[in-house]
Amino acid sequence: MATMEDHATRWFNVQSVPHSYTFPLEKRPGKLPFSTCTAIPIINLNSPEKSDTIQKIIKAGQNFVFFQVIDHGVSESVSTEALNVLKELFNMPLEEISRDAIKNGWVHMGSTSFDIDGVHLWRDNIKHPCHPLEKCMQHWPQMPTRYREVMATYVQEIRRLSWRILELICEGLGLEKGFFEEISQVQFLSASNYPACPDPSVTLGVLKHFDHSFITILFQGNVDGLQALHDGKWIGVGVLPNAFVVNIGTQLEIMSNGKLISAEHRVMTNSDEDRLTITTFINPSPNCIVEPAKVLINESNPPLYDSFMYKDFVVSSKAFGPYTEVVQTKD
Ligand SMILES: O=C(O)CCC(=O)C(=O)O
Ligand SMILES: [Fe+2]
């Protein structure tokens, strides 16, 4: 357990944002308050009208890129327990977290491990692969002691949910059933703790980026912070109790030949409370050839993207930086 003393000396326990966390003017979010965009689609996955659900997902992927799913079949206690155990983990003394990460082979990125153009992000982060479970679990945190049990339930539920969504997308795009099965065997988890920040206008939890996944499933608890770039403006993907945020990744944009679009997004901090989130990426397998699906290509719909092997892209773009080896299970 973290002691009071340990907490008081942590990097975020400061009266003002240190220079090393202050972004250059053009990257700062500025003083605008976080405002939730009410137009972001909310999709009920349990609706009896399946074709209606599919249509809503495809439309959301074309227009808003992010959407939220409700009545998704993941019980609230599973997600809440996952957040609780992560909170315990992030509260442990830093040396203990680092020791566990080194011993078991998962990634711990304390805020100072990130250095983007010389500036740190306002977050602590952990990452590890999740699939196949039997192979991955031994490389997860050992502490808190119930971490593996709680997170195993969570990641399995999220895998089921992501399958459901990918199958609906297949149907909506006109791809054969199970199109993504073989090619999306990589799932990894990235959990972030964004402590309350004395001045959210000068720093960010995550800088603007695309997710290089097929889809990303985010549980953001009950604190706002996520913004997506839409028509050149930052829009807030506000918290909806027990909902998951779904984001179309760049690799699905390519496979769909641009029928679905991936959006840049970023994370703002806030001055009132800590924010803890769990991101699950469903990624192409390393040997997957990423290219517009053949059935979507014809004379009037030429391919809009070149084809490449996912692992070559990951290496050449440094998509996962120093932690490529860990999140990209080898074939
Ligand atoms: O924490 C969030 O709200 C989103 C994080 C994110 O965009 C990512 O991990 O790629
Ligand atoms: Fe992201």
UniProtKB/TrEMBL annotation:
Answer yes or no on keyword ATP-binding.
Answer: no
A Pfam family that this protein carries is DIOX_N
Phosphoprotein: present as a keyword of the record? no
Q: What GO biological process terms are annotated to this protein in UniProt?
A: coumarin biosynthetic process; response to molecule of fungal origin
List the keywords (alphabetical): Iron, Metal-binding, Oxidoreductase
- Example of a GO MF term: metal ion binding
The segment(s) forming the Fe2OG dioxygenase domain are: 182-284
Please name the InterPro entries in this protein's record: DIOX_N, IPNS-like_FE2OG_OXY, IPNS-like_sf, Oxoglu/Fe-dep_dioxygenase_dom, Plant_2OG-oxidoreductases
State the similarity comment.
Belongs to the iron/ascorbate-dependent oxidoreductase family.
Task: Indicate what this protein is called per its UniProt record.
Answer: Fe2OG dioxygenase domain-containing protein
